[in-house]
Amino acid sequence: MPRTIALNPEEVPAESKATLDAFTKNVGFTPNMMAAFAQSPLAFNAWAALLGSLSKALDVKTRDSIGLAVSEVNACNYCLAVHSFTAENLAKLSPDDIILARKGHATDPRRDAAVQFARRVIETRGQIGDADLATVRAAGYTDANIMEIVALVAMYSLTNFFNNVFDHEKDFPAVPPAGSI
């Protein structure tokens, strides 16, 4: 059972309304996570600003692959459903590529380096080794790109933790548990 209730449109704080309305327009409906997150205009708008800025980082396939890898490590079923949906429908990743990303890999060698690095960052809580940096740099990522990967890991972790704490009702197609992929 969800631990918080998604707000009805008339209950959304005024400071969250414009942000929530923009997401609703983009997605075509109001996801439960966002309707709940909107209860805190400060947290919701800060997250939305970060999401907007990081939507320009790297490419969509890499961003969605990182989201899948991080959500898998953080065991966030809500985010895994969302990222699987967006990876398939927006990033145009194949079902096999989605599963591979959940496991921290990609078929494209450059994207694979970014996803593996992101997974190492979340698994080690940022305590990565010199070899990890050397590997992602050797794949062609600049220090600025690496900073963007770390920021994506942090942003996806924020929503993972939020969704794990509040356990929203799922409104995206469910994905199989990690053990079955």
From TrEMBL:
What range(s) does the Carboxymuconolactone decarboxylase-like domain occupy?
41-108
Q: Which SUPFAM superfamilies match?
A: AhpD-like (SSF69118)
* Protein name in UniProt: Peroxidase-related enzyme
| Organism superkingdom | Bacteria
Identify the taxonomic lineage of the organism of origin.
Answer: Bacteria, Pseudomonadati, Pseudomonadota, Gammaproteobacteria, Lysobacterales
User: InterPro entries given for it?
Assistant: AhpD-like, AhpD_core, CMD-like, Uncharacterised_peroxidase-rel
Native source species: Luteibacter jiangsuensis
Cite the NCBIfam families for this sequence: ahpD_dom, peroxid_rel
Protein keywords = Oxidoreductase, Peroxidase
Q: Which Pfam families does the UniProt record give?
A: CMD
Molecular function terms, GO-annotated: peroxidase activity
